[in-house]
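Late entry, written up from scratch paper. The run itself happened at the end of the previous shift, but nothing got recorded in the book at the time, so transcribing now.
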Amino acid sequence: QVQMVESGGGLAQPGGSLRLSCAASGFTFSNYAMSWARQAPGKGLEWVSGIDSDGDTYYADSVKGRFTISRDNAKNTVYLQMNSLKPEDTAVYYCYALGSWGQGTQVTVSS
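Output as recorded:
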């Protein structure tokens, strides 16, 4: 079955960086778009970024210029490089595709 497993979250200081990874299985990874979304405490789900099968990338305005999405089809993995982190980036980050979601990874940005 389709599975996503996120990793790489943690605590970062404002202005710092983290790289999230999402290992996917159960489908032909290279054929499908992958996306990241997040949910901040007490808020709804927010789409963050996507990458299609051709490698074209898309970003929410809130992260454009700071986050970079990429994929490694040989490893069935999608990444989210997060730079210049802000406290408002604090959230649980999820990757998803084909209607399946991972368990999420917590990102906390605080001094």
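The mean pLDDT is 97.
(Scratch paper discarded after transcription.)
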